[in-house]
Design a protein that fits this description.
Order of helices and strands: HHHHHHHHHH
Number of strands: 0
Shape: globular
Largest sheet: none
Oligomer: single chain
Strand content: under 5%
Structural class: mainly alpha
Number of domains: 2
Radius of gyration: 20 Å
């Protein structure tokens, strides 16, 4: 039964990620993006026929509602432990950020804000810290990154780390302690090096923009599984 519930949870997460990506347009208002994702009102795409539009706009909301109701019922009966919901929520937000940053070089503030708020709410349980300590750590992280970015710009005359990446790292700081956050940043940087080298060597332009948020997301998911999942099982 647990395996079936985990498959249902994974299916719901990937369905939401897919539909969020289909409905995302850079600069779209948050409420429009949310409504399109929840109701699958993305049938404005000219590639869809009238039958496809009817299918996606009616079947998708019903399917999502049924799947969500099933998972809530399984959670209420104790057949699906709560820590799987936490890992699913965290992974869904980070995978969505990874995909959007890969395609658009953007990290939408609503998703980063949701990651920050959920981190502040759940990290006292995960890390055993109070909310004030978490907020101080996150603020200190932002100030330090801002100073490093300013120094880099002063010497190199170019931006080393985008504002979206800085906000994303601060959001991750609400989920991890300083040592774990450092491992995430180092891991993301190491995995981004081959990407940079490939594009630098084989692209016509020598200016390479790295979707650093994508690598941060993948590293963050791995570190969550390594550092938090064992403690959640205790």
């Amino acid at each position: 039964m647990l395996t079936l519930n985990l498959l249902a949870l994974s299916l719901l997460s990937f369905t939401l990620i897919r539909c969020s990506l289909v409905c995302y347009v850079p600069g779209i208002p948050v409420h429009q993006w949310y409504l399109r994702t929840m109701t699958r009102w993305c049938s404005y795409t000219p590639r869809l026929t009238r039958l496809d539009q009817l299918f996606t706009s009616i079947l998708y909301p019903c399917w999502t509602l049924i799947l969500s109701s099933y998972l809530v019922l399984q959670f209420a009966t104790g057949a699906l432990p709560f820590h799987y919901f936490i890992f699913s929520l965290f992974s869904t937000l980070l995978l969505l950020l990874a995909c959007i940053d890969w395609y658009y070089f953007l990290l939408p503030n609503p998703i980063v804000g949701a990651l920050t708020l959920t981190g502040v709410g759940l990290s006292p349980w995960l890390l055993g810290l109070n909310v004030i300590s978490i907020l101080i750590t996150a603020l200190s992280c932002y100030v330090l990154l801002w100073l490093i970015n300013r120094l880099y710009f002063a010497f190199k005359k170019k931006v080393g780390l985008g504002q979206g990446d800085m906000k994303f790292i601060v959001a991750l700081a609400t989920w991890f302690d300083v040592q774990q956050l450092a491992i995430i940043i180092i891991s993301a940087s190491l995995t981004a090096i081959p990407f940079y080298c490939y594009h630098y060597l084989y692209s016509h332009s020598k200016i390479v923009i790295i979707p650093y948020g994508t690598f941060l997301s993948l590293s963050g998911i791995g570190c969550f599984y390594i550092y938090h999942m064992p403690s959640l099982f205790d």
